[in-house]
């Protein structure tokens, strides 16, 4: 078969033009602008047009509020969309030659969040424990451009996109609380970044919340105080604890039983010490709880001790008579607390208990004697002591003993002397020593001894309980003159020197004779006999 020839070119060109030139059934609808980003509640102008060469029917399909603006042409119309609240896709349509075509415009609404709020922080956060920060975001669009930044002061802790779902949306971050976080402000900030759309960066920030961190050691506070406390006496209670932060925020509660104690606190670098006075009362007699709590943040450490409040009156010393005459029988009694043990003048009672008794006949030496009653009481394992002393007065007549009033004094003439004579008695007697009834011996005073002072004196001691007398003699002697004493000393010294020289000469001559005798014996050949050394005269 022979190959066929080329086809005519005109029909093919007509087919191509028919395909390129739109006819009534191939008209296209277009919209301008195709993409719009606008603030919520804003308005936008949308132009719908058609490529139909006839007079098409143009319209805009949208639930939004619209109105046609400007007189449109044969194949275009302008619409104003107002109060746009959310994303939307209005559709422009046209009917041309019985066929319809459409075009969409994409409206994106942006708005900043209505509420950005950091969830409340704990009142107190322990140091070293995790702290979760929660930021809640309500509203805001478009979410794809919305970011949450969690802040400590100006420091960024976390940057996260806002979840697309959930209202309000929540963004969290967990941090480890430290001492440096005490007093720090935490907040969260939203960033709506539309700079890629030719707009700006919109920011909203929450109100800040201040964090308080603390350290409270696991060890209980140290409590010092009187573990036994007598009624109507005061003691000091001290409660202390180390390792606190911040120590200035710590509080102390001190109590004895139901009684809260007023205390003063002394602060150290990381320690405190609370001091209080505590007083025992008759109503609290018995076992009471001493309580101390150190409170910091929402935690506390406590210590409890037991205090025994007791009553222990001073024992009584009872004298049958506090003042008696010599020879009178005196009864001394010692009485104390029913549970006490007593000793009277160091001697325990015959039957151990709260009472002891002593009988004696008053003697002069008992005057001014102290009788002591010592009582001991065991309280909560501790032994406490109380004492009372009473003095006995014994009335007796004057006494002039020789040891207190010597009967004979011998004094050198012109020497300084002090006569002493002590009279005893109760009441105290008056003493006078007289010579010849008129010349008084100056008892207790320093005097220069003269011959006039020599003689015998009558000493008389008198009181309301009688009198007593004795005689004392004063002898005045002459001493040698100083020149006489010097002559005697010189003679004694001379005699001693001469005696020493004589002994030395004798010993020398004797030794010389011994040597001569031995020499003669050696020359004669006679054996030498030992010579016994004579004792020097």
UniProtKB/TrEMBL annotation:
GO biological process: cell adhesion mediated by integrin; cellular response to amyloid-beta; cellular response to glucose stimulus; cellular response to leukemia inhibitory factor; establishment of endothelial barrier; leukocyte cell-cell adhesion; membrane to membrane docking; negative regulation of endothelial cell apoptotic process
SUPFAM superfamilies xref list: Immunoglobulin
Record keywords: Cell adhesion, Disulfide bond, Glycoprotein, Immunoglobulin domain, Membrane, Repeat, Signal, Transmembrane, Transmembrane helix, Ubl conjugation
Transmembrane segments: 484-508
GO MF annotation list: integrin binding
Recorded GO CC terms: external side of plasma membrane; extracellular exosome; immunological synapse; membrane raft
Signal peptide location: 1-27
Domain Ig-like intervals: 113-206
Subcellular location: Membrane
Main location as per UniProt: membrane
One matching Pfam family: ICAM1_3_5_D2
Lipid bilayer topology: Single-pass type I membrane protein
Subunit annotation: Homodimer. Interacts with MUC1 and promotes cell aggregation in epithelial cells. Interacts with ARHGEF26/SGEF. Interacts (on T cell side) with CD81, CD247 and CD9 at immunological synapses between antigen-presenting cells and T cells.
Family: Belongs to the immunoglobulin superfamily. ICAM family.
Stated role: ICAM proteins are ligands for the leukocyte adhesion protein LFA-1 (integrin alpha-L/beta-2). During leukocyte trans-endothelial migration, ICAM1 engagement promotes the assembly of endothelial apical cups through ARHGEF26/SGEF and RHOG activation.
The protein's name: Intercellular adhesion molecule 1
Species name: Cebus imitator
Gene: ICAM1
